[in-house]
Amino acid sequence: MPSLATGEIRTEAKRSYMSIIGLYLFIYYGTGSFFPLMAQYYQSIGLSGTQIGTISSITPIISIFAQPIWGMLCDKLRVRRPILMLALLASSAISLLFTQISTFAWVVVVFSLFSLFQCAVIPINDSIALNFAKQQNMQFGNLRLWGSVGYAIATLITGYAIRSWGPHAIFFFFAAATVLAIVFLRGLSDEGDNVKVNGNIFNGIGELVRMPRFVLFLMGAFFIFGPINANNTWFSLYYEHIGGTVVGIGVAFLLFAGSEAPFMKVAGYFARRWGLETTILIAAVASGIRWFWYSTAPTTTMVIAMFFIQGLSVGFYLATAAQFVRENTPSSLQVTALTLYSSMGLGLGSMFCNLVGGVIKDTYGILHTYTFFGIATMIGLVPLLLIKLRTKAKITEMQ
Q1: pLDDT band (50, 70, 90) for residue 131
Q2: Where are the domains of the chain?
Q3: Between the CA of residue 292 and those of 139, 273, 289, what are the distances in Å?
Q4: 88-102, 124-138, 375-389: which has the minimum mean pLDDT?
Q5: Please, what's the b/e burial string for 114-127 (b: 16 or more CB within 10 A of its CB; e: otherwise)?
Q6: By three-state DSSP, how is residue 239 classified?
Q7: Residue 191 has pLDDT above 60, yes or no
């Protein structure tokens, strides 16, 4: 009987593992079909840089308010799967509405509704994966890397689809990928975290913002994660500006996102060797250097040839940042903490960088937008350095 029980546990763990891989693969396939190539859709309906920046800021603005609420609901109700399924179903259906509109006002309305549900997807999915990784004593990066694989494949395939069928292909590919993610989600059990949950869901935020390390990390995410996400909005226009094509954009994103997977695979090794704080700092420095280099208008050949910079910067950052949040916040507030982190990076940081980046593009050109991204990232190094110094001081005191 004991061996049978062990076999059942292993079978359940394997099924959950495959379900999480499928979730990451298709959630990020949808994301890769949508966000990096939306500028092509905006351009096709005649929107200006400022209008594109404004629309791109909708998801961040809504995320600031909606993501913590989604997270607190998950922590309070101790469920993940039903809420994630709702968010996936709603965002899939709403995405198809873009095929029926072509004015700035209607895009704002539909994008706002879309963002309300879409902003819940990644933090909740990350929470499920982090919880599973902790239970199975494995590195989160080994799960998260499948998102980069899906994202990479999607940008290439959707880039070709846009050339053949036009920008509306974006929304059909997104909806199809999201439905496939739901199929994998149905095979995943939702066991909760088996921890005591605060009685008042709003008490969690108060507890988190009283943690200096977490607050400093959020400040860093604002200035570092913001440009990373804003690049998904502006890169296609930037790449065309330096002489690239729409298909070339897909190839670039294939290589960029594909390079994240191996770096995520080894992120755990470097985090154990150097520490989470140092690994995150290295990723941030690489990210800042990348944006400054882009502002010098290198050739498309050089941009493609240096594709691995994305893996070093974004791959390391994404794999280690979520782990930092998990290890520096109470387990009972894990989803709330992840959604606050996402709200600062995907939310406030992206909103700030998209709005300012759009104005800079219209006034000075797209190259100066990337100069701004580089400056913002350098500012984000300051709170990360403070975290590193505080950690070093504590180690010295213990010795």
Answers
A1: confident
A2: 2-186+201-398
A3: 32, 29, 5
A4: 124-138
A5: bbbbbbbbbbbbbb
A6: helix
A7: no
Residue 250 has pLDDT above 80, yes or no: no
In the predicted model, is pLDDT for residue 321 greater than 90? no
Mean pLDDT of 304-325: 88
- Sorted by sequence, the CB contacts under 8 Å of residue 195 that are 6+ apart come out as 331, 332
Contact 118, 87 (CB under 8 A): yes
Contacts 24+ apart (CB under 8 A), 189-192: 189/12, 189/16, 189/81, 190/79, 190/80, 190/81, 190/82, 192/78, 192/79, 192/80
Residue 396, exposed/middle/buried by CB under 10 A (0-12, 13-18, 19+)?
A: exposed
CA–CA distance, 188 with 185 (Å, rounded to integer): 5
Pairwise CA distance, residues 70 & 126, whole Å? 13
pLDDT at 192 over 50: no
* Token output for 298: 């290198």
Q: Tell me how crowded residue 111 is: count the other CB atoms within 10 A of its CB.
A: 24
- Where residue 189 falls among pLDDT bands split at 50, 70, 90? low
User: Considering the entire predicted model, what is its pTM?
Assistant: 0.70
CA neighbours closer than 13 Å in the CB half-sphere of residue 278:
10
Q: Is the pLDDT of residue 195 over 60?
A: no
| Contact predicate 335/77, CB 8 Å | no
Nearest to 129 by CA among 199, 91, 179, 184: 184
Give the SS3 label for residue 193: coil
| Separation of alpha carbons 360 and 339, rounded Å | 29
Element of type H or E holding 82: helix 81-95
Residue 221 pLDDT exceeds 50: yes
- Most confident by average pLDDT, 7-11, 67-71, 372-376: 372-376
* Contacts (Cβ under 8 Å, ≥6 apart) of 213: 328, 387, 390
CA distance 228 to 124: 20
CATH T-level topology, domain 2-186+201-398: Growth Hormone; Chain: A; (1.20.1250)
Residues in the chain: 399
Instruction: Give yes or no for a contact between 322 and 338, defined as CB atoms under 8 angstroms apart.
Output: yes
CA–CA gap between residue 265 and residue 346 (Å, rounded): 23
Distance from C-alpha of 306 to C-alpha of 178, rounded to nearest angstrom = 31
